[in-house]
Structures are given as C-alpha cells and as structure tokens.
Amino acid sequence: MTAPTTHSAALERTRAEVCALHAELVRWNLVTWTSGNISARVPGTDLVVIKPSGVTYEDLTPSSMVACDLDGRPVESGGTPSSDTDAHAYVYRHMPEVGAVVHTHSTYATAWAARGEPIPCAITAMADEFGADIPVGPFALIGGDDIGRGIVATLDGHRSPAVLMANHGVFTVGKDAKSAVKAAVMCEDVARTVHLAREHGPVERLAQEHIDALYDRYQNVYGQRAGNDS
Predict the structure, then answer these.
(1) What is the 3-state secondary structure (H, E, C) of the chain?
(2) Which of 39, 76, 191, 209 gives the lowest tally of CB atoms within 10 Å of its CB?
(3) pTM of the full predicted structure?
C-alpha cells in the first residue's frame, strides 16, 4: 500500500475520529490529566494516528493528532507523539487484524494490574465482551516497544481485547477505534464490579461452557443485523 498525502481524506477522517473518542476516556473516568491515549490505523495506508504527548484532553484537536508510520515515526513536522507510540506500533505490525489501540490507567483495572492478578470471568457481561478472564501481561518500562511485545504475547490466541500490563495499566485493541474504546470502558466496569463482589467473599468464575455460550451469543446474535425486518 502507498501512503496518502498528509492532506488525504482518510487521514483527516481518522484524526477527527481519534480526537473525538478521547473525550469518551474522560467521560467514563478512565484517565487523569494527560495520561492515556488512543491510536488508530488510517484505512488503506501504512499509517496510524495517535494522541500527542503531554497534551491535556481539553486542548486536543484533530490537527494535533500525530500521524506516524508503522515503526512509530512521525511522517510530518509538528507535535511529538505519545510516549506509548512504539508500543502501539509494535501491536499494529504484529496484529494486522487490530485497527485501534487504547491505553488507560483506569482506577479499578489498574488496581488489578498492580496486584498482577487477572480479572476472573465471573459475570455474564464479562463473558459477553471478553469471552475469558482479562489476562495480565508482563511488566515493561515505557518508552520502547517492550510493552507492545508484552501485549502481543499475552493476547496471542486469547479472546480478550483487553490486557492488564503488570504495575502499569490497561491496553485494549479493537477492529476500529470505537471498539477499542468500548473494551476499555467495559474493562473498568467489570474490574470494579468483581472487586466489589470480592469484598464480600469469594467470587467463582463462570463455567467455561457458559462463558462460551454467552460470548457466542453476544458476538454473533445480539443487536441489530442487516436484513432483519422482524
């Protein structure tokens, strides 16, 4: 594929979408100050768009989103991309099915990450969205692609679109940016619910057969389908 010019319609649409979705991270209380970020592939290209480093959410604009190649290098002059860019880029290079990556330090999910403990698939909403426990990835320092390597290794062959990177926070993936943001929202929701449940006693994981059935229904049956007139 050839990269578009920096003024292509696809790039500008992706900038606008990624910028707008950052507001959802604030809305759902998944981030504080300048922490967290969203990136997404630019359709039909080998480019991604990601949040600029150290910019507050209220100051984000579509034009401030930084376009990078799949090695995490900016392709135009302007802002500095997120310090997590190399991690995101590694995911894109090694998981071609992924269209977007989200990173948060949401409170309850990050508490599980601090304990290095997977979130057990103990409620039906979790089976629907994740189809499994939410796994823990290895500890890695920020700034290189080590976090990306941990994400890819942990999610390889796993249903969950979310991973808790040990002592760090949450990374989610999706076919597009909205899907990855939804996974981040749901990850925090189930992390909080299961944590609160455990305060009152042991929490039992759902039977695998029930997890499989719930996941299949939610992914393949739930919601509106094209051509459904009933």
Answers:
(1) CCCCCCCCHHHHHHHHHHHHHHHHHHHCCCCCCCCCEEEEECCCCCEEEECECCCCHHHCCHHHCEEEECCCCECCCCCCECCCHHHHHHHHHHCCCCCEEEEECCHHHHHHHHHCCCECCCCHHHHHHHCCCECEECCCCCCCCHHHHHHHHHHCCCCCCEEEECCCEEEEEECCHHHHHHHHHHHHHHHHHHHHHHCCCCCCCCCHHHHHHHHHHHHHCCCCCCCCCC
(2) 209
(3) 0.93
